[in-house]
Design a protein that fits this description.
- The chain has 696 residues and is mainly beta.
- The protein is built from seven helices and 43 strands.
- The protein has a single domain, classed as Maltoporin, Chain A.
Amino acid sequence: MKVLGIKRVSALNWVGKFARLISQSFQRLKRGTDLKIAAAASVMLLVTGSLFAQEAPPAESVEAYKKMSLTQLMNLDVTSVSKQPEPYGQAPAAIQVITGDEIARSGASSLPEAMRLADNLDVAQKNSHDWAISARGFNTALGNKLLVLMDGRSIYTPLFSGVFWDVQDYLLQDIDRIEVISGPGGTLWGANAVNGVINITTKSAKDTQGFYTEGGGGSMLQYFGGARYGGALSSNVYYRVYGKYFQRGSEVFSDGSDASDSWNMGRGGFRIDAEPSLQNTLTLQGDYYAGHEGVTTGGQANVSGGNMLGRWSHTFSDTSDMSLQMYYDRTHLADPIPASVVGAITLAPAGILIDDLDTFDVDFQHHLHVAGWNNVVWGLGYRFTHEVTQNAPALAFFPPTLDHNLFSGFLQDEIKLRDNLFLTLGTKIEHNDYTGVEVEPSGRLQWNVTPKHMLWAAVSRAVRTPSRIDRDLSQPGPSAPLVILQGGKDFQSETVIAYELGYRAQPTSKLQTSLSAFYNDYDHVRSATTNSTLNAFGLPFPFFFQNNVEGQTYGFELSASYQLLDWWRLHCSYDLLKEDLRVKPGKFDINNALNETADPQNQFSLRSSMDLPQNIQFDTTLRWVDRLYNNNGATVGTVPSYFELDARLAWRPVKSLELAIVGQNLLHDHHPEYGFPGPARVEISRSVYGKVSWEF
């Protein structure tokens, strides 16, 4: 079963195909609808008006990442593993760090494209504006086991417990780093951090002083522009404002015809950072976006939204500090839903689904050292969501208005057993309105064999709590003569027990390597079942969601960076993923446990970064993705394996000006990365664009 017809989730396509298969014969029913909850794109607030002359930002600030050696990268502080700064080389988890310079040199023009730099992620582009992104499997249309944060603000939606990647964006020049953890992070980050955590951190306003602007265009990325201005309100209060806009063209179907999925988005925002004293730092930031996306089934999806976040950090002493964070987030979606048709019968006409979500979140965290050998971090959190849905005839959620509360608390203690041996124990306890209390404990052992060689092992439990699709869905709406798919009122949380073993090292000043192996044991995974009796039409409807699937995944992730010459760095990676999901004995799943996985077994990448004479940079990325299998009704669908090549050539005639040309997907006119076989599968086209950037 695929899921529904909402454009925004490209994964909610279950029902459309599901219904068409029914018209052939219900014995062949193996999918559902494609509830693709469309995320249309964004607004642009391009910074215009007066340009204020200002002293150029310090070179050491602008160029910091560009000058990083492998040793400096190993010592780069990360916070996602323990919620406190620690060197990347000594972080006991399967973590990858994407620096701002790596993003710039990759030629990525969006956050999903930048995620390809993380070796431990599976990134597949579905169409012009939608991506499937996951870690360690379960990269389905309704991927729901990856938690993503932007400056501490959770950007997953409770509609399906996943991320609408088409509305997550920023001026990439101002991204500081992206930390990507593969493996459970529930102890610190809570529900839905099942297979991984992505933590996107933007630069402080203090580090983005001056004026920056960029613009360009090409074949698929037809035109784009962005600007940022940073200044100081006083000697210890800094600010920046930014805006950006882009227009992307449509991708194509397998026969080369237009897929009608063009995309435009605009976004603007601000950030203020203040340092009123040595003990206190304050941050206030906000963003607004809006835009439009073409839908391959017809029509246009519209989205908009905004957020405001405030954070106060206070240092009590060298051994104790705290932070208090609050944010408000508003999202709006208007998505065209196709008619629900079974055979020659139209069950419900086409219409527009409108979803408005308000999120209020407050989070407190305290870190302290106790007795010299205990490093303790604990915290409390509360989140309130208010969702109002105007249902479409062919797709509905009940109740249409829903308020949810999430209470949480966590405690983690890093215990120093010896000078080079550490044991970390902790758990998070949450209470949600669907399943009540959820507990997510973990244990982690770290052995620093030498200052440059580290071994670690971990055992963790994580949960994926129910979403509105799991509990509240109706496809089509109940006013139709026949409902095909419903949420399960007793749907429980999906669970995983994960076992991990890892090694990270810098054997020489020119070589850095990391290896992580894992074995995950899943239970209560989503299934679709039916009542044993037939309805008035003589069919076994409605199908509804239960937790009848279980199984294991295992594999490893290997990466290495090598400074071949002072001006030439190579990076390579290889991932292996094995999956064994099955229906529980005595239970039933219409999809025979095929619907929750759509993942390549093998992935390989090789990146080359060259600093050539005359201030020229030349970067290339070759990637190979194995064939992936997905649920395609009575048969297993496939996406063929493929090689692809991206390249970027950039020149700085003067320090403040850069000219670049970027080529993406250079090995094919177009190729599929996701989706189900057939003439309606969208394929990703070769793209070339030019870019000019200027800063002073």
